[in-house]
Design a protein that fits this description.
single chain; 572 residues; alpha/beta; FAD/NAD(P)-binding domain; Helicase, Ruva Protein, domain 3; 3 domains; 9-stranded mixed beta sheet; 8-stranded mixed beta sheet; globular; binds flavin-adenine dinucleotide
């Protein structure tokens, strides 16, 4: 049960084509993963298909915060903030290996008029400190027992000591408050893996192309494999997956997916692009605390967040360009650099940027004239006339609750009593999984010394499964080698990822199972040949397939680089 290797995927596809299911989920982002887990944990037979790689949509492109969202307070989205803060607490408990508390420094400058999107602007900014203090007290209050520590006001000197990159000019005072952060992709993978451990059949690179009906009710989907180079009968043509309940969890594509059914969509998604810049921590002199720049001219806030070995700066919020491969454009880079440089001592330039990334928020159009920054982050579960369930909107932080709402609907249809089993369900890799520790104990050979940064990275990324990665290193000490000299990723992870996380392409490994594509200046192009060698060995790639994978990854890296040139050494 729960075999997420390439062979496991083939078996899952065969079973999906043969065995009618209770629930079929379309979309392998965090929302679809959550629905698959919740339904499987309540005892339903479940399948999930994702047209690209798991988390290849919005769920790998976020700011990676698990938060209530202080900027929804001035919009009086109190229920949203409250539910997200409660979910934050649950995630910290159920996935402590992947979700960590993070301290934020919020500076207040004399020039500030609408910090954190406040709708009112007191004359000369008088009383803004009191308003922020009250807002943060409400934030603490809304978290209730799950609060991570009370906010407090700090003086100018403490702001500058903790957020060393900030300019002192015009700084009046500041605040400290607490939230949490995660690795969005690895969180999605952990939810999927937990779903597979509860019996869910999962397949990436398998797109839904239409719906099957019985007596006017949705009774399954038409699906097609999308993996380049895929072989086998299922790859050649559409096949039908039959299920009594079909859930559309395709994020910004939810409306498009509903249209495959020939029905009028039940909800309207208003995608809004968000871009991030990635810097070294040194460039921003950033330690382990995040900074919030509280005001932009379009009423936004900008986060500077320490993340893994790097610092993330984001985000923008500006409507739709092209949806399939969102990238940070010249305008996005100018916008973010411009705001950053208004607040930092040492101006940053494009040469300081390690990488950029962008994604689309699945915002729901609930209020007609609202700008993207004010569109609702709330979620909705709707039901088409033929019974198709659609879930969209929400945030990474609230995925569990969204999934629970969907499966409650299914329980109601089935006349089952509601069972909220994921409230206290640890995600795969949470401390205490004995099986992986046993794998390590029984592996032979001596483990070559792994440095502290590598050990910390392995337990952060894989939790208790880190033992299984280390067992591979014991068996093949050469797998201890770093893939990129200044990043803590090692060769053993590539092998582990192929065997247990359904990684099938170079991009799956470099851009999602690891984050080399955004942490490395060459976007992983320097590491790609070694990674391709390890994958070829494990997945049985021919040399032609290895070359095809390398070419496809080069094309991906070029597109993602957008207007920023790749270092010349990395471009073949
Ligand atoms: P997706 O992750 O997009 O998943 C939908 C999946 O459906 C895709 O993988 C797609 O390939 C698949 N699909 C589409 N059509 C088909 C088909 N026909 N067949 C099969 N599969 C299909 N939230 C937070 O809580 N904290 C944050 O810090 C945060 N920051 C954000 C920053 C930005 C810039 C953005 C854009 C969002 C941020 N969010 C954040 C929101 C959060 O990332 C999203 O709400 C969440 O990832 C959406 O997940 P999803 O599963 O609904 O959509």
């Amino acid at each position: 049960m729960g075999d997420l290797s390439a062979t496991g995927r083939r078996l899952a596809l065969a079973r999906l084509a043969e065995t009618p299911l209770d629930v079929l989920v379309i979309g392998g982002g965090i929302t679809g993963a959550g629905v698959a887990l919740d339904a499987a944990a309540r005892g339903y037979s479940v399948g999930l298909v994702e047209r690209g790689d798991f988390a290849s949509g919005t769920s790998s492109q976020s700011t990676k915060l698990v938060h209530g969202g202080i900027r929804y307070l001035p919009q009086l989205d109190i229920p949203l903030v409250r539910e997200a803060l409660v979910e934050r607490g649950r995630l910290l408990r159920n996935a402590p290996h992947l979700v960590h508390p993070l301290t934020f420094i919020l500076p207040l400058y004399a020039s500030s008029r609408h910090p954190v999107g406040l709708p009112i602007a007191p004359p000369f900014g008088m009383g803004l400190d009191l308003i922020l203090d009250t807002g943060l007290a409400l934030y603490d209050e809304l978290a209730g027992k799950q609060n991570l520590g009370k906010h407090r006001r700090i003086d100018r000197d403490e702001v500058l000591a903790r957020a060393r990159c900030l300019t002192p000019a015009g700084l009046k005072t500041g605040f400290i408050y607490h939230d949490a952060q995660t690795d969005d992709t690895r969180l999605t993978l952990a939810v999927l893996r937990t779903a597979a451990e509860h019996g869910a059949l999962l397949a990436n690179y398998c797109a839904v192309t239409g719906f099957a009906h019985d007596d006017g009710r949705v009774a399954g989907v038409h699906a097609r494999e999308t993996l380049p180079g895929d072989e086998g009968p299922a790859a050649a043509a559409d096949f039908v997956v039959r299920a009594r309940h079909v859930v559309n969890a395709t994020g910004v594509w939810a409306e498009q997916t509903e249209r495959l059914d020939g029905e009028t969509p039940t909800l309207q998604v208003a995608p809004s692009k968000g871009a991030h810049l990635v810097f070294t921590r040194e460039a921003l002199d950033l330690g382990d605390e995040a900074i919030v720049l509280p005001e932009t001219e379009d009423d936004r806030i900008i986060f500077i967040v320490p993340w893994q070995s790097r610092a993330l700066v984001g985000t923008t919020d500006n409507g739709v360009e092209q949806m399939e491969t969102p990238v940070a454009t010249e305008d996005d880079i100018d916008y973010l650099l411009g705001h950053l440089n208004r607040s930092v001592r040492r101006p940053l330039t494009r040469a300081d940027i390690v990488a950029t990334y962008a994604g689309y928020r699945p915002l729901l159009r609930l209020h007609r004239r609202r700008t993207p920054a004010r569109l609702s982050r709330t979620h909705a579960v709707t039901e088409g006339e033929d019974g198709l369930l659609t879930v969209s909107g929400g945030k990474l932080t609230t995925y569990r609750l969204m999934a629970q709402d969907v499966v409650d609907r299914i329980d109601r249809r089935e006349d089952h009593k509601r069972r909220h089993v994921t409230l206290r369900l640890p995600l795969s890799g949470a401390p205490g999984e004995r099986a992986t520790e046993e794998t390590y104990a029984h592996s032979t050979g001596e483990e070559p010394p792994l440095d502290n940064a590598v050990l910390a990275h392995l337990s952060g990324a894989y939790g208790s499964h880190a033992c299984a990665v280390r067992a591979l290193v014991r068996e093949r000490p050469q797998l201890a080698v770093r893939l990129v000299p200044d990043l803590p990723y090692i060769g053993a992870e590539v092998v582990y990822i192929c065997r247990t996380e359904m990684a099938l392409t170079l991009e799956d490994v470099l851009a999602r199972r690891t984050h080399i594509a955004i942490e490395d200046r060459s976007r992983g192009l320097d590491a790609a040949p070694v990674v391709a060698g390890l994958m070829a060995e494990d997945l049985g790639w021919s040399s032609a397939e290895r070359e095809r994978q390398l070419a496809a990854y080069r094309a991906y890296a070029q597109v993602q680089a957008g207007p920023l040139p790749l270092p010349s050494a990395a471009v073949p």
